[in-house]
Write a structure and sequence with these properties.
238 residues, alpha/beta, Rossmann fold, six-stranded parallel sheet, 9 helices, 15% strand
Amino acid sequence: MGGACRLVATFVLVHGSWHGGWCWSRLAPLLRAGGHDVFAPTLTGMGERAHAAPPEIRLSTHVDDVLELLRFEDLRDVVLVGHSYAGMVVTGVAGRDASRLGSLVYLDAYLPDPGESEADVWPPSLAVGAKADLAAGRTHRAMPPMAFFGLEGPDAEWAKARLTPQPLSVYLDPAIREPLPGVPARFIHCVRGPLASVFATFAQRARARGWPVDELATGHDAMITKPKELAELLLRAA
């Protein structure tokens, strides 16, 4: 008698601003425990690669980071997950070459329309400081308080020790100029914390596109605060 067939998925997890591949370290083992492959790259100029940032880094560099990972590891049918800023990155990846993608997951992430940069879609509450930094010629955005990410106590201490200043120039370029190709996609909205209302806007965009939208009762950094619940949602995308 034949045994039951079990799906093995490949997840590529892309972090947001100030973060690095380290931020998935609580989530990735939960996915791997089910036999799935997990890649969690750190984008150029961030995390443990902060020392290697060129003087002016652009969104296209981070898109290249992910595309080259897919190519060099020969990954196929990938579940590509983008958190926060990385919504711009995964959108750019899909717009450049969707041939290795199985689905997209926007985890409390920016979901741009064609022609929009992240700076274009910042709400006023987030835009003032960052735009002032850009106007003053500063190259990096200072780290916000840990409460910004919905983190407190030991979680906040753990993350604060690893966060690095965010290159500002990546916010200036559109992710795509044309509509995304028909890659299945879904949105996960973190409904607590100071950023909940910001990303509710993009959850609504996802609904308007007919995408499934899940909610997590936690702050913005769900991979740190609710890794088990997040893993269960990500497995739906596989």
